[in-house]
UniProtKB/TrEMBL annotation:
InterPro entries: NDUFAF4. Binds calmodulin. Interacts with NDUFAF3. The lineage of its organism: Eukaryota, Metazoa, Chordata, Craniata, Vertebrata. Belongs to the NDUFAF4 family. PANTHER family: NADH DEHYDROGENASE [UBIQUINONE] 1 ALPHA SUBCOMPLEX ASSEMBLY FACTOR 4, UPF0240 PROTEIN. This is NADH dehydrogenase [ubiquinone] 1 alpha subcomplex assembly factor 4. One of its GO terms (cellular component) is mitochondrion. It holds the Pfam family UPF0240. It comes from Trogon melanurus. GO terms for biological process: mitochondrial respiratory chain complex I assembly.
Length: 170
């Protein structure tokens, strides 16, 4: 409904508005800046001849000028390869989660993805005898001290549901 109403106002008296716009006096263009110097040079033959004439005195002065250029000796400093990577990072395939294309496929050795971190924390919580710190370190290519810190300071959440009759008691 709104589109029809706006179309009516847009097309109302369109011919007379178009004629009025066309019949308006066109604005004059801004004046151009005079290039007086170039015009003067083109008109005067003496100036043109002076420009292209070879001056013998200036030519002899120019012959006396001699420029010597020497580059400083190049010193190559060997800093023991600190700018070059000493070794390429080794990558390992991740234990893929259930997100498909969104999962990280390759991770550097010594690091884990978030899906792997949650999985190993959950496995350790459910079966601490099977998933020990040593086994996790070997399985995910991590250092032992990092795995111990991870298992000590990061604990996955536990969801607890209370039965209906105990909710009232709480």
């Amino acid at each position: 409904m709104g589109g029809r109403l706006t179309r009516v106002f847009r097309t109302f008296n369109i011919e007379s508005r178009a004629r009025r716009e066309i019949s308006k006096e066109k604005p004059t263009a801004a004046p151009r800046h005079r290039t007086a110097r170039l015009d003067e040079l083109a008109d005067h033959r003496e100036i043109q001849e002076e420009i292209y004439r070879k001056d013998a005195r200036l030519h002899t002065l120019l012959k006396d000028v001699y420029v010597e250029s020497r580059d400083p000796p190049v010193r190559v400093e060997d800093r023991g390869g600190e700018h070059l990577p000493s070794k390429l990072e080794e990558k390992r395939l991740t234990k893929l989660g259930h997100l498909g294309d969104l999962d990280v496929k390759r991770v550097s050795k010594g690091k884990i993805s978030i899906v792997e971190a949650l999985t190993l924390l959950n496995n350790h919580k459910l079966h601490p005898q099977i998933w020990t710190a040593e086994k996790i370190a070997v399985e995910y290519s991590l250092e032992q001290k990092d795995v111990n810190s991870l298992l000590e300071f990061f604990i996955p959440f536990t969801v607890q549901e209370f039965p209906k009759e105990t909710k009232k008691a709480i």
